[in-house]
Amino acid sequence: MQAVEKSFSNHMTVRIPRGMADAIEKFLKTEEAARMGFDSKADVVTAAIRSLLIECGFYKLPHRSYMAYTGERGLKEAVSSTA
Questions:
Q1: pTM of the predicted protein model
Q2: Structural domains in the chain (count)
Q3: 76 and 36 in contact (C-beta within 8 Å)?
Q4: Do 50 and 77 meet the contact criterion of CB atoms below 8 Å apart?
Q5: pLDDT tens digits, residue range 5-18?
Q6: Which structural domain, as residue segments, surrounds residue 67?
């Protein structure tokens, strides 16, 4: 996996294996992806990385909201902490 930093943004580019990208594209065509609010590869990859880093204790969620993890895959559902 290779990362390329962009100085003009708060984002960066990360390269993933083609097979994984193909699987994400296939997933994005499903009703499940739409129901979960995913509409781009970046959304899926960000959710997966966030889940892993939280689970391993390397990422903390913003104070005003938290993520409730649903299903066996640990995918996201945004929930307001003020609700």
A1: 0.65
A2: 1
A3: yes
A4: no
A5: 555 688 899 999 99
A6: 2-80
